[in-house]
Amino acid sequence: MTQPGSEADPLRVAIIGSGPAAFYAADHLLKQPGLVVKVDMFDRLPTPYGLVRAGVAPDHQKIKSVTKIFDQVAGNPRFRFFGLVEYGKDISLDELKQYYHQILFATGAQTDRRMGIPGEDLIGSHPATAFVAWYNGHPDFRDYEFDLTQERVAVVGVGNVAMDVARILSLTPAELAATDIADYALEALSKSKVKEVYLLGRRGPAQAAFTNPEIKEFGELEGAEVRVLPEEAELDPLSKADLEASQDRTTIKKVEIIQSYAHEKPSGKPRTLVLRFLVSPVELIGNAAGHVVAMRLVKNVLYATEAGTLSPKATAQFEELPVGMVFRSVGYRGVDLPGIPFNERWGVILNQKGRVLNPETQHPLTGLYTSGWIKRGPSGVIGTNKPDSVETVTCMLEDLATGEYIHAAQPEQADIEELVRTRQPQYVSYADWKRIDALEVKEGQAQGRPRVKYTRVADILKALGR
Amino acid sequence: MKLQTILATKGKKVLTIRPEQPVKEAISVLVQYNIGALVVVDEDGRPIGIISERDVIHEAAHNDAVLTQMIGEVMTTKLITGTPHDDIHSVGQTMTDRRIRHVPIVEDGKLVGIVSIGDVVKTQLQEYEGTIDTLQTQVQASPGK
Q1: What are the helix (H) ranges across chain B?
Q2: Which of A23, A27, A52, A62 is the best mutation test for B, with the most CBs of B within 10 A?
Q3: B2 contacts in A (CB within 8 Å)?
Q4: Cα B144 from chain centre
Q5: Whole-structure pTM value
Q6: Which of A101, A171, A378, B1 could in theory staple to A109 by disulfide, Cβ–Cβ 3.0 to 4.6 A?
Q7: Residue-wise pLDDT tens digits, A268-298
Q8: Beta-carbon separation of A305 and B12 below 8 A
Q9: Burial classification of residue A372, based on how many CB atoms lie within 10 Å of its CB (0-12 exposed, 13-18 middle, 19 or more buried)
């Protein structure tokens, strides 16, 4: 028996999702020497790139330049994109198995973790991801409303999403106008009354998840100054000893930057970004109308776990922080997909090195794979998905060689395009997307911006003349 | 990055063994699954020790009957455990400092996985590779370059 992978019988792979993990996997598959692979990529949105379009902050255009690499991948004649086609709704697993030898899920981590504290669902308390999706013009979130008449806002967490949210809230209208932020968000944020933004870290400066460029960028904002309480900028004895032992230069630099903010004199800029350390919210306090008006914080101290991590432990010291809006950014998790075993504990597809496992036997399910955040959980930068996807594709190639793939009924003759057309006649091809892309960039040029995004599916279809 | 990033791609099954089993059985499991250590658990599934290739070698150096010896007599009982929320870098540091190669991971009193020094190195390498790749992409996109 010969394996698929020849001109006459190409290996056919379906990829669900079109973010970085999806494109890196497609790239690695299409680059295999001597193997003919056809890749079809499906996304429930009409536009590709996942979080590069809907997550990466609009003032970080350089990070978005990775789409040029994705564009090259998509330029391969053996690659197709089916936008606006949702797995589990427009097309099922059993149907995909009729057409493909291998199916890879790269759907990311789509929901946020909750803080698990009283008052979390008060009006004015939001997941940070909803705000991010809103300002980035995600069609599902564009009609959300955020009360930007509030003067004091808290962002819980100090990871990159928390940093993005705090920074976007602090940019001046002129700074925002130079980005590809969604039009309606630009308008709303230009009228924002926000004066103080609090970023709350559970641990100390040495454990903060943000990167050095991210924290330095705070100090370079036009209309906002950074404040750190001098006592919170000081390292506790455990962190100090840890840092002295490791001599980790990145962390030493990070602590230096944070401490420099603690000793800066007020510059009189209209907004303040307050970076707090060693505090955890324990309750959101509401008024009679059910709106957030304050947050109760507990002071933490650090202790070393058995395995050596410095972890936070609550003290009996509390404080109340008056805030009118709260964004939680304390972690993300994947959403389970129909027919695919899910590991509830980690919020990922049940997998081993990217091979989807049968939950009963813990053996691989033939032909099913995963990569990216839905495989390992949300971690790393965009590039981290490359080695991650390479690992999965390596498994796919190993399994192909041993004959472990889906023996699709009619992989070549009956083309999936016909089925897609009956289920989603409005599906968006990559050529369609490139037309949308050109229109967005053109509109951006007219306004002196990188691009002006379409934020409604209907508008995209209209622009395509449908 | 947290240890749970490592555990997420290792499936759900955690191989364990009981202290009253002979060392020979531990060796066959180690060989069968191509792994370096097994967590030893009591009747409630709680980790009470770990048996590694190294433990077996050390015992064999002075005991010809090592294969029939009970695992409980050979295993390492001074156990360092982690949680899924431990930082990968801190755990890597601890493993290097204390010269241990495997850390059982426990959550809410239950054994949920095991992390080897190989897992830690692999994940850190992926993290660095990813960061370099992203930085390169950005540098190439910079105007004037």
Answers
A1: 3-7, 23-33, 53-60, 71-74, 88-98, 117-141
A2: A62
A3: 379
A4: 47
A5: 0.94
A6: A378
A7: 999 999 999 999 999 999 999 999 999 999 9
A8: no
A9: buried
